[in-house]
TrEMBL record:
GO terms for molecular function: glycosyltransferase activity; hydrolase activity, hydrolyzing O-glycosyl compounds. This is GH16 domain-containing protein. The lineage of its organism: Eukaryota, Fungi, Dikarya, Ascomycota, Saccharomycotina. Gene3D superfamilies: 2.60.120.200. Keywords: Signal.
Amino acid sequence: MKVTSIIFWCLVLAPFGNSHPAQSQIKQVPISVNTTNVNPALTNTFYVNFLKTGRCRALVASNPKAIGYNSKTGARIILDPNVCDNNFNVTLKTRFYIMFGKITIDAKLQNIQKVNTAIALQSDAGDEINFQLIDNEGVYTDIRRNGSSTNQTEKVLVPCSHDYHTYTIEWRPSSIKWSIDGECIRTLSYSSCARLYPQTPMLVSLGSWSSLTSMEDQFESLSIKRMRIENYSTGIKYEYCNSSPNLDSVTVFKGEITKDGPVVRRWFKSALHLAKPR
């Protein structure tokens, strides 16, 4: 399958902060969106193989010193007291957003006491869809809407630790599907939770966080070999026309929001990024 690598120039986004990744690293209160925020859109399929490329300019790290790269394990999030300065919260996030789509991550989530790890889609409005490895309890799937819990958490009984698995989240207007190694383990329909359904542009966030205030040893909490991201909508950027964090407030430039599946694309070049077929 032919995929496209997106390289970003001239754009730096600040990290979201230092809150709990298993709780989305999003404030747990309703959020009003800053209407001046611009969410640059992924204009085609993004793919990175960390086993070959190492650091990727389309991703931004909250603490670059806490992320390592090698040809055997790919990108690694390492909670190390020597580089984390007692702030054991490390994330790797995309500089672009999608408006419905699919993410596929080949990763190993480590079971470590008092360390939580998340593979997530997150929006500026506090929406989230994720896989979470909470402490030693196992893998959970969850959604959040406007920064608040939706009581839609489900535990997944899979042997996740000490091995790589393919984690997939497919987010459509009609449903969300979570899959592990190609097998769908959960489906959540829009009709079952309409008011709570995530519906604002999302970036991809991979991260780990610990409740410990100090550590004696370093821990490798998350390893990522490959990442593939598809945007089902088109356009070059998303903005909010008002402070209400819902689909009706999202404006897309030079494109359209999908009705349910991938939209036929055209190529765009903008000041935000340059896309080149590989």
